[in-house]
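**C-alpha cells**
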Amino acid sequence: MRRFVLFACAAIVAGSMMAAGQAQKSGAAQPAAHEVPQKPLLPSAFAGWVSDEAPKSVADVAQMDGANAAALKEYGFTGGMIAVYKRDGDTLTVKALQFPDVSGAFGAFSFYRDAKWPKEEIGVSAASNGNRVIFWRGATVVDATFSKVRAESASELRELADGLPQAQGNKALTPPVLDLLPKPGNAEQKTHYEKVPDGIKLVPGKGLIARLEELTPRYAVGATSYAGAGGVLPAQLVGFEMDAEAVTADYSLSSGPAVLTLIEYPTPQMATAEEQKIRAYIDAGKVATDKTQAGFTQALKDSDQVSLEVRRTGPVVVLVSGDAIPDESHRLLESVHYSSDLTSMPMPGISDVSKTSGLLLNIAYFVSVVGGAAVLLGLLMGFGRAWWRVAHGKPVSSIYEAEFTRLNLKD
C-alpha cells in the first residue's frame, strides 16, 4: 500500500513539473513576440517625400498644439509624431496625433476641421483649406501642411493614410450618439415651406424635411472642446462633469437652416434633470427683453426664438435651434429616437497573458483531480483490506499478527 501511494505522489509531481515546464517555455516565448519593434506612426519616406531627420515622437500635448492643448486632453491625446518632408524644393509638415480610440480621433478631427472646408477623399474623412489638409483614420488624426499644393497631393496623403494603424475591438467603435442624428434624405413631405419677403408660403411638391450637412457634425466630451467647436449652449450648462457627450450638426430645411444638438448622459435620470435646466434657460431667454442679460449665446440670439425647442429621449437631451419655421424644427426634433437595443461589439483575440493564465488553471485542475483520485483510491483500498481481514476473523491491521514464541509453562 505504501509503495502504491508513493508511486501516485511521484506521478502527480512529475505531471506538475512537466506542465510547469511547458508554461515556463510559453512564458519565455512571450517577450520574444513583444520584442518585435512596432512600426512607427510616421514613416521616414513615402510617395517621394523624404524626411532628413527621423520623425520626432511627442508626448507633451503642448508641444504638439499648445493653442488647443486643453481640448486635445479632453479627447484623450496619448502622443504623436511630427515630421518634416522635402521633395524637389517643396516642404510637407505632418503632425500625427494619437488617441485612445476612434471616438477621440473623430472628436479631434471634428474640432479641427471647418464645415466650410471642401471635402477630400483621404482616410475615413478629410477636409482641406488651401495648402492644409486634415484627415483621420483609426485612432489617429493627421494635420498636413504643404508649402505648395499639387494635383497629386491628395493621392500622396492617401498613401500615408493607408500606413496608419487600424483600431481594434471596442476601440474601433464610433460614439453611439452619432447614430441618433437623422440621416440625409430619410423623410420627405408632399409640400414644403419657403420664406418670401412678405413671410412664409406653402409650396406644393416634394421637398426634404432635413438634409444633414455632411461635414458639420461636431463631437465634444468637455467644456473646452464643446465651446471651441461652436456649441450652441453655454458649456457649463451641458454638464460635462457628469460624463456627458455632445454632438452638434447643421441641417438644411426647406424654410431655413437648423442646428440640432444631442447631449447623451449616463442615465435617463440625469438627462431628465439636465433637460429641465436647459428648458428653463431657453424659456427665460425667450421672455427676456434683453437676451444678453439672459446669458444667451450668439447662436441662440440669432435663432428664431419661436423655433427653439427641447425634448428628451432616453438618456439623450435634444435641442433644435436655427432659423427654420417652428413646424419643421419640431419635426426635426421629433425625428430623434433613442433605442436601448444592445449592439454586438467586436471582441479582440485571445492575448498571450490569457493563454498563460488558462494553462496555469488547467495545471491546477489536473493536480487537484489526480491528487483527489489518489486519496480516494488509498482510502478505498485501506478500508477494503481492513474489511476483508475482519471478515476472515483476523485483526484489522497486520501489526497485531506479529509472531512470537510462547512457552506453556505450568507449575
Q: What stands out?
A: The radius of gyration is 36 Å.
